[in-house]
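User: My collaborator sent over this chain with a note saying "see what the structure looks like." That's all I know about it. Can you take a look?
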Amino acid sequence: MVKNESARGEPDVARPTEIAREVARLARVVFGDNAEVIWFGSWPQGKALAHSDIDLAVSTGAPIPPERMVLLQEAVDELATLYQLDIIDLNSVGPALREEILKHGKRL
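Assistant: Without extra context I'll predict from the sequence alone. Here is the result:
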C-alpha cells in the first residue's frame, strides 16, 4: 500500500513534486525548451490534502493551440499516477488567475 502522508499526518509532497517535474519535462518536449511551467495551487503552497489535484500552468509566450495542448495531455496520460492533473495555458486564463499563478506558483 502506498502511503500518502508523512509521519505527522501531513500529505507527502515527494510524489506530487516528482510528477510536476515530469510534466514540466514533457511540456518542454512538446513545446520546446523555452516553455515555462508553473506549479500552482495547494501542493506548492503546503495546503494540499493527500488526494489534492496537481495544478500546472504552461506558457510559451503566446496562446497555445488546443491541438498542441492535446499532445501534452496525451503524453501526461501515460504517467503512472492516481493524482488528477490539471494543466492550463497561462496565456488563456483571466488576469486575476494569471496574477495569482505568477505571484504564488513555483516555476519548474
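A starting point for your reply to your collaborator: The beta strands are 36-40, 54-59, 85-89, 106-107.
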